[in-house]
Amino acid sequence: MTVLNGNFEVGTFSNWRTIGDTRIETAALGTGTSEGTFQALLTTGASASGGAVEQSDLEEFLNFPSGLLDNLGNGDATEGSAIKQTFTANAGDVLTFDWNFLTNEGTPSSFNDFAFFGVSPFALELADTNSSGFFATSAVNFGQETGFQTISVGIAQTGTYTLNFGVVDVGDTVVDSALIVDNIQVLSLGSITSKNDVVFGAEGFVGESPLSSSASTNVEQFLATSAIAEGATRL
Fold first, then answer.
1. Per-residue pLDDT tens for 140-191?
2. What is the pTM of this model?
3. Can you give the CATH number for the domain in which 206 is found?
4. Domain count, the chain
5. Is 44 among the domain residues?
6. Which residues of 72-94 are buried (b: 16+ CB within 10 A; e: fewer)?
């Protein structure tokens, strides 16, 4: 079963589970859309859709080990929101999606809010307030955005996985940030190459988002090893 409702064009979170402040938005948000009419917005704030939840509740929802969000390296994660869905992929498939990180924090800031995606129980940062490339946004209730980015993730092993996306406040619960995600697809390409931004295998992620300020391992170096075929899929 591939990712269902990955473009949110039904106008709801059908096939997704959510926690915190999660909404379906259109171009009226002020950022435009990467494709189609609808997109998912996750924030560290509150709205009629709900409010961001504490770190412990977020990690439990995502089946993350306690403290994982702190260990991504940005400081004390306080609260956030997320969505998740279970899907099946074959070795050599490539997961792709579009995303945009928005914030009211300074860029850079010691309150280093961040957006992430994950395949439970692993997570990888997409961007944070110390990332490069921010510009003033027209988005309602936000000051800056990264603009839409596309990331590709090579799947090293056949399996059933839980895909998740989230956004987290760091160091405070006062100034909000958000993640837009859209156009989530699993493509049957048959092989993983160094053109993929990230590879996901038994030991987690290798590689990084182009806008992440966190260090990571080089995908090309990883593909030159046998690690991609070792171990069992960790769920």
1. 999 999 999 999 999 999 999 999 999 999 999 999 999 999 999 999 977 6
2. 0.89
3. 2.60.120.260
4. 1
5. yes
6. bebbebbbbbbbbbebebebbbb
